[in-house]
Amino acid sequence: MKNNNLYLKIFFIMVMGLIISGDMFAAGSNKKDRKSQQDYIAIKGKVVDMETDVPLIFAGVAVKESNIATVTNVDGEFLIKVPQDDNLVLVFSFLGYKNKEVPVSSMHQNGQKNTIALEPATIPIKEIVVKPIDPDYIMRAVLRNIGNNYPDVPNDMSAFYRETIRKNRSYVSIGEAVVDIFKAPYNSMRYDAAKIYKGRKNSDNTRLDTVLFRLQGGPVTALDLDLVKNPETILTSESLAQYDFSLTGVVIIDDKPNYIINFVQRSGISIPLFTGKFYVDVNSYAISEAEFGVNMTDKAAVASMFVRKKPIGMSVTPEATEYLVRYKESKGKWYFAYSRAEVKFKVDWKRKLFKTTYTTMSEMAITDRTEENVVKILGKDKLKPNEFFTDEIAAFADPDFWGEYNVIEPDQSIEAAIRRLNRKFKLSER
Length: 430
What we know:
The protein is mainly beta. The protein contains 7 helices and 21 strands.
């Protein structure tokens, strides 16, 4: 069986004795000339279920007929910055709901919040009765149609990236950045690349003890979650043979019907693989979304793949893994749009009474893209897979740090953590 290198690419690495330097916020030193958007407006709001008012987490928020986009946070809240143009329309989307279009001119701007209620979508039977319902056939069709469904030209993308570390319930590290991305064609062997344009970070060294979980590669790792571009683990003919697939339903995504294909690791395979579900567009056989995690049956084997270094007397047990990758269709092609990874570990010391839980999270949302005048990122500028994102950004404090750039609105817990870390930083300066 082929060696599964994706583990080391996408999983968080535990490193002994590496502590992020203090500091409030940081700005990256790598910069390039950009056309500044002097005239923009900021629109804030919350996306909820129309019937229950429950927040819709990671819902899509995009400017119609453009590539400007973001997603809601875990509270269902969003912030999107758009050019000053009353003719613009925002499109809100979420798995299992009808898309909703709202003119920018009708929305509160510059601080006032908007509530966007999405309506659950029903699926007309006629949409799917003529289509095959054999899950193995559907997955083979996915492979056959990758060349048609995903771009065969490079893209220059802008993205917002965030990673956090929690010790038990407290945030001990937060890092964020606007990132430039070279997205290689899906039909080539060329690799994606990322470069930090502007970033900031903070950490609480007093809560880190002697152990720190860090995400190796940062934005590069987030790009590796693009399973269509990096298909070795699941989306090759050889890999498909390692899973059992089942068709469990059909759901609406972006007003299009999608198969729900569940997959589990086949019995008799010793190395831990994955379990989860694909959402496959009924008409094109494109994967529009994937939700998956590691098969945790053999936790000792999983731990051996996750943990890079640990001190004597410590045991590390992986508790949960959750991964999400999403694609957005435009003019018949599907583009990488969002990825998120969350991994939880329990750490136990022989001489300590209580165990410590560490949770690491990273997410990246594509906020703009173009296929025009795409230039590869130079080797000296691009992030390396073995580098740590937080090492690439240094101290900087500015309440208007992000300016016109689109970001993922921090949820309430992250906002509270930033305020706490900010107070601690100011006290340390005295």
